[in-house]
Amino acid sequence: MAGTAGSEPEHERSLQRRPLGEIEPARSRHMWTRSAVATTGDLVVTGEWDGTVTAHEADSLEPRWTVTHPDHAVGITTLSDDETAASAAAVVVAGRGETGTIAVYDAETGEQRWQYDTAADIGTAVKDSVFYLPYVVSLETDGDRLYAAARRYERDGEHRQWHSTVYAFDPDGSVRWTYETDASPIAIDLDTDGDRLAVGYNRCMGDHDNGLVVLETDTGDLEWTWDPGTEGDRRVGDVSFDGDVIAVSSHGDKRGYLLGSGGAERWAVDLATETEVDGETLYAYPNHVYANDGRVAFVTGNTYALERRETESRHPNEHRIATFDSDGSLLWDEQVRGFVHGLATDGDTLVTPCAQNFRVRDPETHAVRWFDLESGPTGVDSLAGIATAAAVDGETIAAIEEPVEYHDEGDRRGEYALRVGSLE
Predict the structure, then answer these.
(1) Which of 11, 12, 290, 370 is the most buried (most CB within 10 A)?
(2) How far apart are CA 67 and CA 294, in angstroms?
(3) Residue 90 belongs to a domain with what CATH number?
(4) Where is the composition biased (Basic and acidic residues) (predicted)?
(5) Is the pLDDT of residue 115 over 60?
(6) Which long-range contacts (CB under 8 A, 24 or more apart) does 208-212 make?
């Protein structure tokens, strides 16, 4: 029951817009993560590249408070006092910058509750470049404890190295445990009961040689590991728990996996594996995965050629979302039409903020698209700029639009803005 390739979701929507300020326009290729957004209850929180963090009232988008985070504010989640709370009690911000700061702010006032600088563990930048800055790449919470993964990259000639730490924080900000490796974490996810934490490692070029580790959340002890078993340092793109199983998108072999206890492989599917097109071997990375209630969705990214990065051709499964059932059979698939920075999810709802499709440079690909995990496309909001971050909570959807200027056109499209609306 595959979807029709290239079709748009049925309902075109228009989300409210609130300008955020100034940011350098993106260019033809997708840029690194520069913005963040989260929504819960009556609050929508934005994080900006200059460190500005603003809590907005969800109904009016008027600011409740604004603070300046010590780093670029590139990740946000919220904490509640208990699982039944209707709104957030605190806002957690992940930073990329000199200190790689994690900070927790009171949701009502913006007052900082605590701060932790991950650079104390993973080290400071050895070069004045964004790629060398300490970077908190992922946050997860069970409503009580906070989990985070931070990394730093360095290079000396041909020698490349990663430094990374996974953290468990108690509510007062004290570190309960850490898990350190010389690999590059890219995603973390908690199981439903909050007993286990899955950590996906994207690049393994040192002693740590496993794309996935599963940790016991009380102690940080290692429970089990898994790896696609491929050559090279590329391993895992994303991880997602669904009860006792874990879905994994593999950068090593460009396939999707469903794993049982101990890493036993339930099934595997080809997503954007190496394919011959016009005499070239092409592939695309499966960058995102989401599993819920026996269904698993994977999202693929840009096309690359095996022998060289530049190619005029496109992999047939690039920029695609594909959902499978518990047996690994395809339920539906659809194009997302451009690079998806991050996947926002809530229950059976998936939201894809779509940025550049740099090979075709078509501004009509710029949009926020949302899908039902079981049935497929449900809505789209087209943007003049590119969508680079999204969040969904119940019926509320939020996204960040950034301006873009294609290198061969010179026209600035869109603006730096928060977009908010309802899925109904």
Answers:
(1) 290
(2) 41
(3) 2.40.128.630
(4) 8-27
(5) yes
(6) 208/181, 208/182, 208/183, 209/183, 210/235, 211/235, 211/236, 211/248, 211/250, 211/251, 211/252, 212/236, 212/239, 212/246, 212/248, 212/259, 212/263
Q: Concatenated DSSP letters for 175-193?
A: EEEEEEESSEEEEEEE-TT
In a domain, 162, yes or no: yes
Contacts of 293 (CB under 8 A, 6+ apart): 242, 348, 373
Pairwise CA distance, residues 311 & 300, whole Å: 17
Number of domains in the chain: 1
Short-list 225, 135, 222, CA closest to 186: 135
Residue 170 counted as domain residue: yes
168 within 8 A of 104, measured Cβ to Cβ: no
pTM of the model: 0.95
On whether residue 78 sits in a domain, the answer given is: yes
Which structural domain range is residue 175 located in?
34-180
Whether residue 167 is contained in a domain is answered as yes
User: How many CB atoms are located within 10 Å of the residue 158 CB?
Assistant: 5
